[in-house]
Specification:
- This protein is mainly beta and 144 residues long.
- The protein folds into two domains: 23-82, SH3 type barrels (Roll); 86-142, SH3 type barrels (Roll), CATH 2.30.30.40.
- It contains one helix and 13 strands, in the order αβββββββββββββ.
- It has a five-stranded antiparallel sheet with strand order 6-5-4-1-7, with no helix packed on it. Strands 8-11-12-13 form a four-stranded antiparallel sheet, with no helix packed on it. Strands 2-3 form a two-stranded antiparallel ribbon.
- Strand 5 (63-67) and strand 6 form a beta hairpin.
Length: 144
């Protein structure tokens, strides 16, 4: 019985290690194609905009198999992404503020699915910049 418990514990450790390995990258071009397989001969599924964060699940040559904040999966050419820190809004109508806290003015409101590059972190707040140049601060609970 003790051996079975240790085997279960070891299995959980392997599972958590694999989950912790998942590399997070961001799209670095204005628009990147997402394909159904690792190559340009595969079907184009959709496009991702600049700073869109993805989690790499598998690598095949020059291609990454990934999932996004909605759990959608696809393949992207590795030269279209980089290791920059980025986030995507996962709630509707989120306030982006002039500083790190609710006591700062709202500079704009953003919808779910909008990606941003992370410039700085202060506690639970992130300073972010959109590809169009808009900047501000957002609470980390509003993003993935």
């Amino acid at each position: 019985m003790m051996k079975l418990k240790w085997m279960c514990v070891a299995g959980l450790v392997v599972f958590w290690a694999a989950a912790a390995w998942a590399e997070r990258v961001a799209v670095e071009v204005d628009l990147a194609n997402v394909r159904s397989g690792p190559g340009t001969q595969y079907k184009l599924l959709w496009k991702l905009e600049k700073y869109h964060p993805i989690e790499v699940l598998q690598k095949s040559g020059e291609w990454y198999y990934f999932k996004d904040f909605e759990g959608d999966k696809g393949w992207i050419y590795r030269k279209l992404v980089n290791g920059d820190s980025s986030v995507i809004v996962n709630k509707n109508k989120c306030n982006v503020r002039s500083g790190p806290g609710t006591d700062h003015d709202i500079v704009f409101t953003v919808e779910r699915g909008v990606p941003f590059k992370v410039l700085e972190r202060k506690g639970e707040w992130l300073q972010i910049r959109h590809a169009d140049g808009d900047k501000g601060w957002i609470h980390q609970m509003l993003v993935w």
